[in-house]
């Protein structure tokens, strides 16, 4: 049986990561705070960093100390699917529950959490490949226009 974690029972640590500096990081934190508030969860704090490939060692240490971490989606934990899942597994091994604001559900059923993680990984990889293909096509058109 799956039980949803009750609002009064949960405080989350927000993790936001952007590859480049700019407003994106602040918007991510703001959106995650709003999401947590909408869910009725408390916010214990946030770790926000500009890091191109995934969480820095210092950020991972901070996240490992939290019982529950809220991220926008799995891609915030790593630039590619392997890095994201590696960070996710490191947190899970430390007993940290990682919640995904972009559709992840908070459950106390480890089988459903694992299945959600696997399905999310497939979707993140598909989105990454689509993005890479669009960028590649755009660069090719730009080169053709210059020639």
SSE arrangement, N to C? EHEHEHEH
Gyration radius over CA: 17 Å
**Shape field:** globular
> pLDDT average, as an integer?
82
CATH topology: Rossmann fold
* CATH architecture name: 3-Layer(aba) Sandwich
> How would you sum up the major sheet?
4 strands, parallel
Q: What share of residues are in beta strands?
A: 15-25%
Structurally, how many domains make up the residues?
Answer: 1
Oligomer: single chain
Structure characteristics:
147 residues; alpha/beta; four-stranded parallel beta sheet; 4 helices; 17% strand; disordered N terminus
Structure description:
The chain is an alpha/beta fold. The protein has a single domain (8-146), classed as Resolvase, N-terminal catalytic domain (Rossmann fold), CATH 3.40.50. Helix content is 51%, strand content 17%. It has helices at residues 23-39, 57-64, 81-93, 110-146, and strands at 11-18, 42-50, 68-71, 97-100. A 4-stranded parallel β-sheet has the order 2-1-3-4, sandwiched between helices. The relative contact order is 0.15.
What's this, in brief?
The chain has 147 residues and is α/β, with parallel strands linked by helices. The chain contains 4 helices and 4 strands, in the order E-H-E-H-E-H-E-H. Helix 3 (81-93) links the parallel strand 3 and strand 4.
């Amino acid at each position: 049986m799956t039980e949803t974690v009750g609002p009064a029972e949960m405080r989350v640590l927000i993790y936001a990561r952007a590859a480049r500096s700019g407003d994106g990081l602040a918007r991510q934190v703001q959106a995650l705070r709003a999401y947590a508030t909408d869910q009725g969860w408390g916010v214990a704090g946030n770790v926000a960093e500009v890091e191109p490939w995934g969480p820095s060692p210092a950020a991972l240490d901070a996240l490992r100390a939290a019982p529950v971490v809220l991220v926008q989606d799995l891609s915030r934990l790593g630039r590619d699917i392997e890095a994201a899942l590696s960070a996710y597994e490191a947190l899970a091994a430390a007993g940290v529950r990682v919640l995904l604001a972009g559709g992840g559900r908070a459950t106390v059923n480890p089988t459903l959490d694992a299945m959600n993680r696997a399905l999310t990984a497939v979707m993140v990889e598909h989105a990454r490949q689509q993005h890479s293909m669009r960028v590649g096509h755009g660069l090719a058109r730009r080169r053709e226009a210059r020639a």
